[in-house]
Design goal:
Elements lengths: L1 H10 L9 H65 L3 H8 L7 E7 L6 E5 L2
Antiparallel strand pairs: 1-2
Protein name: DnaJ homolog subfamily C member 8
InterPro entries: DNAJC8
Organism: Geodia barretti (Barrett's horny sponge)
Length: about 120
């Protein structure tokens, strides 16, 4: 208001609009309304930003879990294949200790991505 008074005095007028009590209340109300509206808009923006940040973080965690799960499945598949391709003494023991008449040899982990237990055919 002091700035308005200086401008009005330079123009040669005696008073400003806010000197009238009714106009002062109206100007004060307008100013407060604008301030509250600005505060509410900032709150809403912060909430939206927080929500999008949480959503992004949740998606990222889900992607990381999927990646770990795929790596684990791949490692298990790889282990099964390496056991079959490069047998060790332990594999021969497992093979020799199987029951008679058994045509399938069950290996420790899942053999495919569908979650079915891997079975290697023994000829």
């Amino acid at each position: 208001m002091e700035e308005k008074r200086k401008v009005v005095q330079r123009q040669g007028k005696d008073s400003i609009e806010e000197d009238d009590p009714e106009k002062y209340r109206q100007a004060l109300r307008n100013t407060l309304t604008k301030l509250f509206a600005d505060v509410e808009m900032k709150k809403k923006k912060l909430e939206e930003r927080d929500q999008s940040e949480r959503k992004r973080q949740k998606e990222q965690e889900g992607a990381e879990q999927d990646k770990v799960k795929r790596q684990k499945e791949w490692k298990q598949d790889w282990d099964v294949c390496t056991i079959l391709l490069y047998p060790t003494d332990n594999t021969y023991k497992m093979f020799n200790n199987r029951q008679k008449g058994m045509t399938e040899w069950t290996v420790g982990g899942p053999f495919n991505r569908k979650g079915k237990r891997g079975k290697c055919l023994v000829v």
